[in-house]
Amino acid sequence: MEALPREISDQLCSYLDRPALASFSLVNKACLDLATPWIFRSVVLKPTSSEDLATALVEWTRILERRSSLRYVRCLQIGPDSKPYGSDNRDDLGDRVPATWTRQFGRRTDISEWSALADFIQRLEGLADVTWALNDSFPDCVLKLILGCRLHLHDFCSRSLIVLQGGSLIVSEDDLKVLTSPCLYSISLGAGVLRARWDEADHHKEAVLCVLSLATNLQKLYADHYLGRGIPRALGIQAISEQMSQVINSRATSPARKQGGLTSLILFNAGPIDTFLKPLSLSTDFALLHTLKLYHGVHPNHLLWLSHDCHLSSLHTLAIGLESDEHTDLAYAELEAAADKFLRSLPLLRSISVTGQYFRSVVDCVLEHHGPTLKEFRLSNPYVFPDEREDLKFWILSKESVLTICLSCPSLEALALPLQRSRGHAAELASYHSLGQCRKLHDIQLNLYGYQDLQPRLDYQGSNATVDDSREGNSDFYKDEDLRDVLVNITIDENLSREIFHTIDRSKSAGSVPLQRLDLITVPVSSPHELHIHDDFARLSSYLARNWTCERGIEADEVVVRQSDIAPLLPNVRDSLDSAEGLEDLRTIMTGQTERVFRSIWPATGKDWWEEWRSVPLASTVDSIADAE
User: Fold this and answer.
1) Residue 49 burial (CB < 10 Å; 0-12/13-18/19+)?
2) CA distance between the termini of the chain
3) Which residues pair with 292 in a beta bridge?
4) Do 139 and 117 meet the contact criterion of CB atoms below 8 Å apart?
5) pLDDT for 519
6) Rounded distance, CA 147 to CA 182, Å?
7) pLDDT digit string (tens) for 477-530?
8) Cβ distance 442 to 513 under 8 Å?
9) What is the mean pLDDT of the chain?
């Protein structure tokens, strides 16, 4: 280890989490010396009172002094973990919804004296980043000490920016100092901030719009909630601007820029253009944006405005959630045309995530225009359209489409897409082999569907019959063998997850980057009324559908598999194993056609049914690859 260049050893340590670093440091003294700066790189304080803060500071000081590690601290977080939505690329499919709780404005941590924290920070000579996630104004005594650091305000909340309807707005001096500080690097407007009480007016949006040109180093803006509620109030903006001007002039600082210089703009919902995006474009130069993520509510007018009026010349990362104005063919055509025009107006991108009502033509446009430079490409689950567009065959990618993606994107490193399972047949295997054609691809997420080709029985085709009608007629809407295929497709256990990982990894050619991570997201039969599925079969589907994460281990061919979550549908089924009543309720699932289909795959062994199922291995039901193709 001593012979390794410092750059290599630092890169090695950067891949390890804190427990792994602690284990690594125990190998020998050389490993201890390498790991120590990384073990103490971050310090997290979560105080709720002055006593908590004092205790935590004493403990951390003792630990850091004992190892002479005060100089190694680079990041200090004060407050609970509250990573902004969109800061992790795994949010880019928009599946996780931000919290919608209402923050209690004015409720503080009962900490009135921050001098001890200031003394602690003064000793951290290598400090580079400070994250503030408390429901308190940032202390002025601390602000004076971090002029060379980057300040991150998570869930930015100021009591002075929430006033009663019709009340006067007086922004506090401390808030103005923070908002105009050259230290301010990122702001996150959390869900709680944007949900003031009915009798209150929230001016956080206006404050952010005003400070973009005043906080000279502000780079990132996150907003976790719908920004369309309430058009920005001119009075609020004017009042804040006057306060800002007074502070700036009194400090005799250099003139503020005409526009801000955001490099990252991440909104959970785009909202109407006039309420936030257009005012924002006047406050910051969109030509400097490197990252633009609008997860939901991007309509054709958004796309056309972004194409015509915004010069996104520096953009390299895009996440966009498409949504039509109406459920008509004309509206879909307008959205499709606007999306095509927008994507072609952009410079060559490195990362693209598409969610919502996207079309196959959107995928084709991305591959044609951006494919050669793409390193990351993420497609969400297909959005359910009315009419014939509800047919999943329009949206779930075939093995040919998967191969086209891999051949069109030679630099692709991360990929997420919806994929149809076919009981492990050759068509499914071909998709996995196609993924292996990407030489640099090492991170994959597959949203696996199991019921694309589900067709009603012949005597129900062409009729308006419903699942209730089939019950009254003492007959079943679907054939047993079709539902059996659905169950085989959605039941994925640890062994099958590992098998899929190895199938993709072993398809890679010599010299390719090995597969490092595979996320398998099983999409259960979640809409019994649309698919005419009996409720008990839908409950069974929800119970059996699991999500898995497979990661390459340290040793050769070692794959660590963990269950990341049971599919987030029908939680009453998921939680049933915790009570006697729940267990009895699970037993009632096994009736009629549901039991008949289940037992045709997994015969009774005397155990409860939830202990009897297991995945069917890949290709175990394949008669011949030629037939499947």
Assistant:
1) exposed
2) 52
3) 265, 318
4) yes
5) 94
6) 7
7) 678 888 888 888 888 999 999 999 999 999 999 999 999 999 998 876 654 444
8) yes
9) 78
pLDDT score of 155: 74
Closest CA to 440 of 471, 468, 473, 410: 410
Residue-wise pLDDT tens digits, 336-346: 999 999 999 99
> Within its chain, how far is the Cα of 46 from the centroid?
24
Could you give the residue ranges of the DSSP H alpha helices within 561-601?
A: 571-574, 580-587, 592-601
Sequence-distant (6+) residues with CB within 8 A of 33 are none
Give backbone dihedrals phi and psi of 161, rounded to 5 degrees, phi first: -95, 5
Burial 5-36 (b: 16+ CB within 10 A, else e): eeeebeeebeebeeeebeebbeeeeebeebbb
Range of lowest pLDDT (238-252, 399-413, 433-447, 494-508)? 238-252
Structure tokens at 119: 């003394």
User: Within 13 A of 322's CA, how many CA atoms are on the CB side?
Assistant: 34
Locate 161 and state its tokens.
């920016």
- Phi–psi pair at 5, nearest 5 degrees: -60, 150
For residues 391 and 204, which has the higher predicted lDDT (pLDDT)?
204
Residue of 383, 388, 382, 316 whose CA lies nearest to 349: 316
Cβ atoms 157, 190 nearer than 8 A: yes
pLDDT exceeds 80 at position 169: no
Question: Is the Cα torsion angle 347, 351, 356, 359 positive or negative in sign?
Answer: positive
User: Which of 1, 37, 39 is CA-nearest to residue 17?
Assistant: 39
172 vs 86, 153, 283, 414, CA distance in Å?
30, 17, 22, 45
Residue 449 pairs in a beta bridge with 420
Q: Return the closest-CA partner of residue 541 out of 488, 480, 577.
A: 488
Residue with tokens 């039509």: 324
Q: Would you say the C-alpha torsion 603, 587, 566, 554 has a positive or negative sign?
A: negative
